Predict the 3D structure of the following.
Amino acid sequence: MSVIGEMLSYPFLVRALAGGVLVSLCAALLGVSLVLKRYSMIGDGLSHVSFGALSIAVAFGWSPLQVSIPVVVVAAFFLLRITENGKLNSDAAIAVISASALAVGITVTALTTGMTTDVSSYMFGSILAMSREDVILAAGLSVVVLFLFIFFYHKVFAVTFDENFARATGVKVSWYHILFAVLTAVTIVLGMRMMGAMLISSLIIFPALTAMRLFKSFRGVMIAAGAVAVVCFLAGMVISYQASTPAGASVVLVNLAVFLVCAAVQRIRGR
């Protein structure tokens, strides 16, 4: 508790903790549906798209968030449309867009500003990068995500597991796809501020996979994923503060450790 109290005495750490908890919660809830629909690597692809967009924004002196969010939203929607039409499977579509966007970002960075502090923080994450505006945006995002999963639970459940059944019952599946694309895109862009483009997908994948080792019901997995994401983020931040390790990497390693423990427990139960 003394360590946490000391951490809360620094305004930038308070912003990082508040923003990180909210983003982790949103990523975990969205991640459950994404993992179940086999879109688990969409976070990795969209983070590379965001890096390409912010590299262009930094090069031209534009606001990174104002450029990255709409570009990533369009990319997320485009990925969903490609996979729905069956022209490319999800893995191939994500790989094509991810590699292309990352190449554009690296090229633009090399030809213009070089690896500045802003670009580096988005690539590898930075605890100092979370601003007051980011926290406010993360709070708004978390309200929307929680509202979606609480008040439209049954529709989200239907869209996640059986889109044909959802359409037959009158659910506007395409509208939910657009909504998920927008929410995932905003979550990815905000999460990159702390986790970096290389690690942000872990916030989507690990909590969902860990929760699936503990519970079988969709509701139980969602609740557990949210709890695991928040606890792992806070534990990772405390470890980062005490051991002077990168915040994003510390959070990922804690998530990995919890996942391995839960996987071992599941295996023991199976025996």
